[in-house]
Predict the structure.
Amino acid sequence: MDEVAIKKWTKMPSDATITSTVAAMQKRGFTVITVDNKAKALQKLKQLLPAKAEVMTGSSTTLGQIGFMEYYMSGKNPWKCLGPEVYNEKDPVKQKLLRRKSDTAEYFVASVNAVAATGELVACDRSGSRVSAYPFAADHVVLVVGVQKIMKTLDEAIKRVREYVFNLENERAMKAYGTPSGMGKWVIIENEYTKDRITIILCKESIGF
C-alpha cells in the first residue's frame, strides 16, 4: 500500500471534527468518553469493567496496543474472563460452543474498523465471531477506538474497511492463523436504544487499524 493511501485512511481529525463526531454518536444513543492517549484509554477501560463481571473480548489490534490483552489474559485481574477458556479449548466443537456462549457476556470489549463523522459505527470480520456480540447479544459493549478511524461519511467509513483495513487484517490473519481473512460479516450500528449499553472510549492517538 502506497504512502498516499495510508495517509488518506489514517489522517488525524481536527479537534472540531472530534467534538462534532462525539455529539453525533451521543445523539445515536452511544456513551462516548474521550481520552488523550493509550495509557488513559487502558485506565478508563479498567474502570468501566466491574469486579467479578463476565468479560469477553473480540479480536482487536487496538486492545493489544493499549496493553489490555496482556492484562486480560494474565489472570491477575478482578473479572471473570471468558476468553482464556475459549482460547484454551482444543476440541473445535466445544470451542465453537464456548465462543457462541461468550457473545452473551456481561461485557464485550473490542473495537470497530471505522466511525462516520455522522455517528455510525462500522465493523467487519470474516466469521462474525467478533461483531456478532455488538448488535444485541452482549449486555454491554465497550469499544476502544482511535480517532484516526473517523471518516466524513458512512460511505467513506465502509471504503476505509475495503481499501485499507482489510489489507492489514489479511496480513495479520496470515501471520496469526496461516489463513487469509475475508469480508464476511458486516455490522453497521446506526443507533443504540438501550441506555448505556454501548460505550465508546475515543482515543486521541492513532491506535489499531
User: Anything to note?
Assistant: The domain at 3-203 is CATH 3.40.50.10420 (Rossmann fold). The radius of gyration is 16 Å. The beta strands are 31-35, 54-57, 80-81, 107-110, 114-116, 121-125, 140-146, 150-151, 185-189, 198-203.
